[in-house]
Design brief:
This protein has five helices and 17 strands. With 227 residues, the chain is of the alpha+beta class. The protein has a single domain, classed as Alpha-Beta Complex (Fumarylacetoacetate hydrolase, domain 2), CATH 3.90.850. A six-stranded mixed sheet has the order 4-3-14-7-8-11, with helices on one face. A four-stranded antiparallel sheet has the order 13-12-16-17, with no helix packed on it. A hairpin with a 5-residue loop joins strand 1 and strand 2. The protein is globular, with a radius of gyration of 17 Å. The termini are far apart. The chain binds manganese (II) ion (MN). Manganese (II) ion binds next to loops.
Length: 227
Amino acid sequence: MTDLVVPAPGLPTVPTGTGGRFPVRRVYCVGRNYAAHAREMGHDPDREPPFFFGKPADALVTDGADTPYPPVTARLEHEVELVVALGGGGRDVPVADALGLVWGYAVGIDLTRRDLQAEAKRLGRPWDLAKGFDHSAPVGTITPAAGVEPTSGAIVLDVDGELRQSGDLADQIWSVAETIAALSRSVGLAPGDLLFTGTPDGVGPVARGSVLRGAIDGVGVVETRIV
Ligand code: MN
C-alpha cells in the first residue's frame, strides 16, 4: 500500500434510524425546486429544468452539533430541505427506477451566505463559497426509505420557536425520482451520495445564538444552534 504523505481525511457519516451510520461520498443540492421560493428569489418557476450545485461532504453538521457562524458574510440564511440518501447508484437512471436507489430520507438545512451568492450571481461567478463553506449542511438522522412517502408531507423550519418556513413536499416542482434521474444524466451516482432537494419559501437570516429546528412529516427533524 502506498504511504500517505499527509494524514487521511476522516469519512463523514450521518446517524440513521437503524443505529448504524451512513457514510457520505458526495453532497448535491437542487436549486429552486419549489415555485414559491423561485418567485421569492426573483425567478419564474415554470418548467425551468432542475439545476444542481454541491457542498463538500465534510460540510455536514450531524448529531445535533452546534453550527459556527461562518466568516465573510453578514447574511447567513436557512433553507430547510428533504435530504435523499442513496444506497445505490448508476448513470442515466430512468425515473421509474430512481426511488429504488434510495436508502433513506432526512431533514437538512442548506445554509447559504446569501450576500456572497447575490454577488456571485451579479458577477456571473460560481456559487461555491456561498453554498459550500465549512459547517454549511446541518442534517438530522436518516430514516430508512421503507414506509416513507416522499411525494407529500409538511416541511417546516422554526427559528427560536418561531415558524419561518412552511411548505409541503407536494409543492416540489421536480419529484425526488425526477431529480435523481436528472442528476444521473450529468454525473454517476453512487452509494453514499446525499441529495438536498430544494427549499420552500420563507428563507431568511439567522444570527449567532439562534436555534434552528427543521421537520418533515414522516421523515424526522434536524436541530442546530448557530454559535
Ligand atoms: Mn437550497
